[in-house]
Amino acid sequence: MKKLLKKIILRIRRLLGLESLLILSGKQMIELHKNIRDIDSLNRFEFKVFSQWGEDGIIQFLTRQIKIPNKVFVEFGVEDYTEANTRFLLINDNWSGLVMDASKSNINFIKSDNIFWRYDLKAICSFITTDNINRLITENIKEKDIGVLSIDIDGNDYWVWKAIDAVSPRIVVCEYNGILGCDHSVTVPYEKDFHRAKKHYSNLYWGASLLALCHLAEYKGYVFVGCNSNGNNAFFVRKDVCSLPPVDCKRGFVMPKFRESRARNNKLSFLEGADRITAIYDMEVFDVESGKNILIRDLFR
Q1: Structural domain spans, the chain
Q2: Does the 2-34+41-300 domain belong in CATH 2.60.40.10?
Q3: Which of 119, 127, 215, 282 has fewest C-beta within 10 Å?
Q4: Are 180 and 128 in contact (CB under 8 A)?
Q5: What is the Rg, in whole angstroms, of the alpha carbon atoms belonging to the chain?
Q6: CA proximity to 178, closest of 126, 136, 230
Q7: DSSP letters along 65-88, please?
Q8: If DSSP states are collapsed to H, E and C, what string results for 95-156?
Q9: CA–CA gap between residue 278 and residue 206 (Å, rounded)
Q10: What pTM value is reported for the model?
């Protein structure tokens, strides 16, 4: 029923020309951003067309700062792709790409959407692991030097990015867990079948800290250039093509304010501030620098 309702909404939106208006507003924002000379923060370039927050604008800014010969993207954890980091690139800039999600119904939804025949888009159903990610990419993407990689799987994000060598993206967008702060280089320990909602009822135990992703970026040859203003996505540019100044992790860190926590009955509990990290005090994280697991309570005591 939910998928059918979304299809109806998409069709109505297109019939009324609302999607065209959204895209037009995005084009107008791109033109306005061309006049900005003082690039002190990525936040100045944010706008939303299809992204969850302001990622569309940041990605448009970055793709215009960096020479990208192969306009190809890979994004996984896209759900039904109605809200995604690369959809505007696909429609507005006519990029090609691969999207992946673990839900078969989500992938079927994408394939039934008219973007699937209007554009060069591949959609694959798979639960992403460190073992299968490179195979999935190489089976569907010919180019190694691609434009954008977007990672959002609410769990093993750090480990999967670390494992990827099938492509060398010029821009990487990776979700970070802001409640872990920016002082500790930690991630959830790797579990092949990690599922955020099943691992802890609060829905807050997942992913990696920004510092852990920055350390990984350095190891893989990337520069951290900032976060979105909502504090959930970090942006990295490959060093050999980066003309932007590197941003210190602490200076670029943004603490999220959205309240997505769940109670034991799975209803939203709206925890905020330090109460969010307190809720998962007894869970273990892997310290990237020491190579050891540690309780979250011992990090924040």
Answers
A1: 2-34+41-300
A2: no
A3: 282
A4: no
A5: 19
A6: 230
A7: HS--SS-EEEEE--TTSSS-SSHH
A8: CEEEEEECCHHHHHHHHHCCHHHHCCEEEEECCCCCCCHHHHHHCCCCCCCCCEEEECCCCC
A9: 14
A10: 0.94
Distance CA 218, CA 223 (A): 7
- Looking at residue 35, the DSSP 8-state letter turns out to be T
Q: H-type helices in 201-280, by residue range?
A: 210-220, 249-252, 275-278
Count of Cβ atoms closer than 10 Å to residue 252 Cβ: 19
Q: What is the pLDDT of residues 230-272, one digit of tens each?
A: 999 999 999 999 999 999 999 999 999 999 999 999 999 999 9
Q: What is the pLDDT of residues 147-167, one digit of tens each?
A: 999 999 999 999 999 999 999
d(C-alpha 243, C-alpha 241), whole Å = 7
Q: Which of 70, 101, 75 has its CA nearest to residue 88? A: 75
